[in-house]
Design goal:
Helix content of chain A: 40-55%
Strand content of chain A: 15-25%
Distance between the termini of chain B: 56 Å
Number of strands of chain B: 5
CATH topology of one domain in chain A: Ribosomal Protein L9, domain 1
Strand order of the largest sheet of chain A: 6-3-7
Strand content of chain B: 5-15%
Shape of chain A: flat
Mean pLDDT of chain A: 82
Mean pLDDT of chain B: 81
Number of helices of chain A: 7
Structural class of chain B: alpha+beta
Order of helices and strands of chain A: EEHHHHHHEEEEHE
Distance between the termini of chain A: 29 Å
Radius of gyration of chain B: 27 Å
Oligomer: heterodimer
Shape of chain B: elongated
Largest sheet of chain B: 3 strands, antiparallel
Largest sheet of chain A: 3 strands, antiparallel
Low-confidence stretches of chain B: none
Chain lengths: 223, 163
């Protein structure tokens, strides 16, 4: 397959850049997004363009396989590849849904107060899903409470009762772009702040909070 | 022991002779309300925990739950489940251009294309590739494409035979 795909990315100034990717590069981007999402404790930016392009890619592959000669060895190999890509894509989307369901009041609160131009962590479809999930769960808890509890007790406050993502959890990463002067905050009061440089290609075990923006910018890859 | 404080307050009121009102036991009342709050919160987290398990069932069994499980669920839980699976279906349909993507499939990374399966229950006709179908009768064994069998394996209709 030699066709190339257009992926519209956004650079840090908010401007649009059109990036043309080969299918291989697209799948690599998908796998990177998948790993980052798997290992980050919070919901990362939505990568709708990648999802859309991969879906298109899968359709093309499916079409090619349907037209191919039966029994051709290449068919088996392409089918394996298609399955593998579909697995990664499904896993990526599942991972996001699980986080949305786990942290829904906080995620929706963040969407409400998001600034203009700030990249959303939810795709439009995910936002619909999140809102429905919230409404559904609130209704359920209210119905159960009304049925069984006397009315003088407090109403459900989901923002308080549903835990927030633990941004202090440790993650493994590999550095893609050299970083200088990363401020590392101490864990205990006895320690002091210190700065580190991160060489390209080096690997680190570090608190997620310290490097969260570097994941978003693509400077580091979670592993 | 829960409710002891509440019982004590009630007993205090009963012990007072007719017509007399004992002093308002603010402290006692506060303790009882705190206990009620703790019980309520505990109950809430149990109730929420059940909800998370019901959600897991959608991913484990598919959109049709086995009867045995349905009997264990309250009417409200059933309603929540129905809304959840509708919401999930809408989301999955919205992925990509047409049809969408069923992300409740492909739960494990693919190891091989075809797998050996044994049929545990009578299922009937099952369409495989390009129109051909197999008859899934109890105890029959088949060599089928892995991706087609996944959900049936999870529902307990097929069993993956590992030689």
């Amino acid at each position: 397959m030699t066709e190339e795909l257009d992926v519209t990315g956004q650079d840090s100034d908010g401007g649009s850049e059109e990036v043309v990717l080969t299918p291989a590069e697209l799948i690599e981007r998908l796998e990177q997004a998948w790993m980052n999402e798997k290992f980050a404790p919070e919901l990362l930016e939505s990568k709708s363009e990648i999802v859309e392009c991969v879906m298109e890619q899968l359709d093309h592959m499916e079409e090619n396989l349907r037209r191919a000669k039966k029994g051709d060895l290449k068919v088996s190999i392409h089918r394996m590849e298609l399955e593998r890509i579909r697995y990664v894509l499904s896993s990526y989307l599942r991972c996001r849904l699980m986080k949305i369901e786990k942290f829904f009041p906080h995620i929706l609160e963040k969407e409400k107060t998001a600034q203009e131009g700030e990249l959303s962590s939810l795709s439009p479809e995910e936002l619909v899903f999140a809102k429905q999930y919230m409404a559904n769960t609130e209704t359920y808890l209210k119905n159960v409470a009304l049925k069984h509890m006397p009315p003088n007790l407090q109403t459900v406050d989901l923002l308080r009762s549903v835990p927030k993502p633990d941004l202090d959890s440790y993650v493994f990463l590999r550095v893609k772009e050299r970083q200088e002067n990363i401020l590392v905050e101490p864990e205990t009061d006895e320690q002091r702040d210190y700065v580190i440089d991160m060489e390209e290609g080096s690997q680190h075990l570090i608190r997620y909070k310290t490097i969260a923006p570097l994941v978003a910018s693509g400077a580091v890859q979670l592993i | 022991m829960f409710c002891e404080k509440a019982m004590e307050l009630v007993r205090e009121l009963h012990r007072a002779p007719e017509g007399q009102l004992p002093a308002f036991n603010e402290d006692g009342l506060r303790q009882v309300l705190e206990e009620m709050k703790a019980l309520y919160e505990q109950n809430q987290s149990d109730v929420y925990d059940r909800l998370l398990r019901i959600r897991a069932l959608r991913w484990e069994y598919g959109s049709v739950l086995p009867n045995a499980l349905r009997f264990h669920m309250s009417a409200e839980e059933m309603e929540w489940f129905n809304h959840y699976k509708k919401s999930l279906a809408t989301y999955m349909r919205s992925l990509g251009k047409d049809g969408g993507l069923d992300i409740t499939q492909d739960m494990k990374p693919p190891k091989s294309l075809y797998i050996e399966v044994r049929c545990l229950k009578d299922y009937g006709e099952f369409e495989v590739d390009d129109g051909t179908s197999v008859l899934l009768k109890k105890n029959s064994q088949h060599f089928l494409p892995r991706w087609k069998c996944e959900q049936l394996v999870r529902q307990g209709i097929l069993e993956h035979v590992l030689s």
